[in-house]
């Protein structure tokens, strides 16, 4: 198995999948993570966001991101350029997209109603590209539709930082 897959995904890639391109990963690692990122949900302004970082969650967890409320089906765009590193459906986040971005940062988009049609692991996206649609999948199925957006600086799911100050 390709080592880049081990670093990028928590599951074994399908036989038809290609490994993530090392040159693009290296390029992203050498870039700086901007201190200002666009709100990744269509028509939502930064002034309307509520900082939900650190709020208590089930099983003694704390919230490692920000919830951005929007109607189901609202477009979700990537806040940075990067590589689609993982697309999946899981119990916690529901339909999710993981993107490796500048400085090796990992950007997590969860509770999506759906991914953008044709989006696949290994795709290179530019800041502002459509990646999915707001929903309430996973453990959010009994909540108002929203996007959970998280930023991790020490690898996939490691080193969470509050995205709220970045979204201005």
TrEMBL record:
Residues 62-156 form the M23ase beta-sheet core domain. The lineage of its organism: Bacteria, Pseudomonadati, Pseudomonadota, Gammaproteobacteria, Moraxellales. It comes from Acinetobacter cumulans. It holds the Pfam family Peptidase_M23. InterPro entries: Cell_wall_metabolism_enzyme, Dup_hybrid_motif, M23ase_b-sheet_dom. It comes from the Bacteria. This is M23 family metallopeptidase. Coiled coil: none annotated.
């Amino acid at each position: 198995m390709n080592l880049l897959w081990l670093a990028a995904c928590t599951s074994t890639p399908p036989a038809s999948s290609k490994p993530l391109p090392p040159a693009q990963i290296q390029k992203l690692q050498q870039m700086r993570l901007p201190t200002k990122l666009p709100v990744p949900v269509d028509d939502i302004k930064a002034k309307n966001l509520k900082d939900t970082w650190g709020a208590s969650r089930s099983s003694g967890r704390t919230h490692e991101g920000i919830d951005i409320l929007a109607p189901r089906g609202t477009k979700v765009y990537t806040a940075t350029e990067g590589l689609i590193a993982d697309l999946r459906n899981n119990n916690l986040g529901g339909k999710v997209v993981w993107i490796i971005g500048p400085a090796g940062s990992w950007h997590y988009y969860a509770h999506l109603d759906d991914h953008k049609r044709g989006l696949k692991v290994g795709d290179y996206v530019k800041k502002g590209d459509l990646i999915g649609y707001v929903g309430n999948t996973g453990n959010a199925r009994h909540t108002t539709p929203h996007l959970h957006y998280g930023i991790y600086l020490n690898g996939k799911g490691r080193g969470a930082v509050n995205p709220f100050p970045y979204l201005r």
